């Protein structure tokens, strides 16, 4: 997309979700509310975990980073989408488009890896509780978090590298609400016969491998839980997994449609709806799921509120 590629397009126009002015007003209010809740919820999770000693465990370390990733993920997309509701067509320079794609790919892929690390944490906690402190030591946790971010960066570099190798010398209207890879490919005047399979090969393989890891972890976890004699013990073990399992189901079901299934199996409008779910809605739901369905988080929240009242 630089001068060396004889590029004539220097900016792209993001068309957004809809051109209907009435619907735009409604969607602007709706998604502004979702974005505010996303920021407040995830920042609250980070503050709560950092200020509560009882939450200084591997599971909540991963959750803290997941909240940070969700903030970055939503912030990479939502502001541009909100501006698109206020005026028809948002102009973004080519460098800005590349930066947005890179940011979305980085945070999205990092979330995939973090969810897999959280599944491994639950597996060790339930299946090998006596070895938990050694298998999930601070060093290993930091390594897992670091590898999650590294995986996100590598996948993002794959996307941006492919995009930078293309020439854009024709239409510049992106039929999406952000600079996504597939809609941009449709505007290129270069040969995309090889590059167009990147979304299926790179993120597709990451998704399949992560899903296998998570599925295997939860299969072993389920077998272990069913072997617990007491109903109370089984319920307690299940309760530690439900929040994470809910998050995994929501996130992977939507991105599988986008990056694993053939493009012919869904339309551009369906692509937009699914993209809204995994880039805007799910980052809002994650802190809500963990705060409403997790007793430890509820208890820590009550203690933090009680301390705040005492100080005031």
In short:
With 312 residues, this protein is mainly alpha-helical. The protein is built from 10 helices and 3 strands; from the N terminus they run E-H-H-E-H-H-H-E-H-H-H-H-H.
Could you explain how this protein is built, in words?
With about 300 residues, the chain is mostly helical. The protein contains ten helices and three strands; from the N terminus they run βααβαααβααααα. Helix 5 (about 140-165) packs antiparallel against helix 7 (about 200-225).
Number of helices: 10
- The ordered string of helix (H) and strand (E) elements is EHHEHHHEHHHHH
Strand order of the largest sheet: 2-1-3
Low-confidence stretches: none
- Roughly what fraction of the amino acids lie in strands? under 5%
Radius of gyration, in Å, reads 21 Å
Give the total of beta strands.
Answer: 3
Tell me the structural class: mainly alpha
The major beta sheet can be summarized as: 3 strands, mixed
Instruction: For the record, give the distance between the C-alpha atoms at the N and C termini, rounded to a whole number.
Output: 55 Å
Proportion of residues in helical segments: over 70%
Average residue-wise pLDDT: 85
Shape: globular
Jot down its keywords.
mainly alpha, about 300 residues, three-stranded mixed β-sheet, single chain
How are the elements arranged and paired?
Layout: E1 11-14, H1 21-51, H2 58-86, E2 90-93, H3 94-127, H4 132-135, H5 138-164, E3 173-174, H6 181-185, H7 198-226, H8 231-259, H9 268-292, H10 295-311
Parallel strand pairs: 1-3
Antiparallel strand pairs: 1-2
Helix pairs in contact: 1-2, 1-9, 2-3, 2-9, 3-5, 3-7, 3-8, 5-7, 7-8, 8-9
């Amino acid at each position: 997309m630089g001068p060396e590629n004889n590029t004539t397009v220097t900016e792209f126009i993001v068309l957004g979700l809809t051109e209907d002015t009435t619907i735009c007003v409604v969607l602007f209010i709706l998604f502004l509310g979702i974005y505010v809740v996303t920021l407040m919820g995830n920042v609250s999770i980070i503050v709560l975990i950092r200020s509560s000693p009882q939450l200084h465990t591997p599971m909540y370390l991963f959750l803290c980073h997941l909240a940070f990733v969700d903030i970055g993920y939503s912030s990479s997309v939502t502001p541009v989408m909100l501006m698109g509701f206020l005026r028809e067509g948002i102009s973004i320079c080519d460098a800005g488009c590349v930066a947005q794609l890179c940011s979305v790919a980085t945070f999205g892929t990092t979330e995939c890896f973090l969810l897999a690390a959280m599944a491994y944490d639950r597996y060790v906690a339930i299946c090998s509780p006596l070895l938990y402190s050694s298998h999930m030591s601070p060093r290993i946790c930091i390594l897992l978090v670091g590898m999650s971010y590294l995986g996100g960066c590598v996948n993002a570099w794959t996307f941006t590298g492919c995009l930078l190798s293309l020439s854009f010398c024709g239409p510049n209207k992106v039929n999406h609400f952000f600079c996504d890879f597939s809609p941009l490919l449709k505007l290129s005047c270069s040969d995309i016969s090889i590059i167009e399979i990147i979304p299926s090969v790179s993120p597709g393989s990451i998704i399949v491998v992560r899903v296998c890891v998570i599925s295997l972890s939860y299969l072993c976890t389920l077998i272990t839980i069913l072997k617990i004699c007491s109903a109370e013990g089984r319920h307690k073990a299940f309760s530690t997994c439900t929040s994470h399992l809910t998050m995994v189901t929501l996130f992977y079901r939507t991105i599988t449609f986008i990056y694993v299934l053939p493009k012919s199996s869904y339309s551009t409008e369906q692509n937009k709806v699914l993209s809204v779910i995994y880039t805007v809605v799910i980052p809002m739901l994650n802190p809500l799921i963990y705060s409403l369905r997790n007793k430890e988080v509820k208890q820590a929240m009550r203690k933090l509120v009680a301390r705040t009242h005492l100080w005031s």
